[in-house]
Amino acid sequence: MSAAPDLAGVELGGTKMFVLRARGREIVERVMIPTTTPAETLGAGAALLRRWHEAAPFEALGIASFGPLRLDRAAADFGHMLPTPKPGWTGADIYGALAGVLPCPATIDTDVNGAALAEMRWGAGAEGEEAEGGGPSDCLCYITIGTGLGAGFALHGEPLHGAMHPELGHILTRRAPGDAFAGVCPFHGDCIEGLVSGPALAERFGVPGDLIAADDPRWDNVAHDMAQMVGTILLTMAARQVLIGGGVGVGRADLLDRVRAKVVAQLAGYLPFVTEDTIGAIVRPPALGDQAGPLGAVALAMDALADASWR
């Protein structure tokens, strides 16, 4: 049996970046770097990767970054940050700054696509018996709800791309009757991110969502909006699992129960695989917990190593 490969991973978030070393899927070292300016943050990450590689060479690098990102390898700005509300980061060359210091295969994707890939291979999607129909999952969605709302999809073992990557946070959903909350998205107002993200909850409630009691009736509108999002995913992608993570998703099991009930009610029996008996296995927290993100970078590194066309 061949030894597990030595891999490098970077999980770049809006407030912090993790640079990690892994042996196979086992993370053996991880360093946190605050996300400040691109030059400072990416420069520190690149220096660490170079130092580690000189001591023990890496076989591949996976970069899982917040977006939006240019992921078309034929584009002149491949691996760059597209227009983003994060000050100073529009146009930043994420891929070039990090992959450029290592003479090994490398790839980049969104952090949520990476997390979806990790969950499909090693988490909820690999649990088999809980997936509708049995066996490993062939279609899975990973959602993180916190400062914003991001979603990634893993389909038949690969992250989903098209013209770019999914931007589920900005879909428009049918509002709950009588809900007049305007939303907080600077682009769209009441898109799903503008309705249920952490800042949206603080605006709805007047205080952060984690200070609101579980039985507060105002959660009904939040659950309605989240259920609209989940229903859209199930109707368009026929996903076997919709994993809801992040501070809003993981921190409130009571909210997920409300969402599950509303998904079943809103779909009204149209999807035969979504029932009161199955919804608990379909809409659930990530099986990998807070390790889905870093393991997403590892999964991307493994894909880079397996892909002979990396350069």
UniProtKB/TrEMBL annotation:
Domain of life: Bacteria
Catalytic activity entry: D-fructose + ATP = D-fructose 6-phosphate + ADP + H(+)
Keyword annotations of the record: Kinase, Magnesium, Metal-binding, Transferase, Zinc
Molecular function GO terms recorded: fructokinase activity; metal ion binding
Cofactor(s) demanded: Mg(2+)
InterPro entries: ATPase_NBD, Carb_Metab_Reg_Kinase/Isom, ROK, ROK_cs
Pfam family, one: ROK
Top EC class of this enzyme: transferase
Enzyme Commission numbers on file: 2.7.1.4
Signal peptide boundaries: none
Protein name: fructokinase
Organism taxonomic ancestry: Bacteria, Pseudomonadati, Pseudomonadota, Alphaproteobacteria, Sphingomonadales
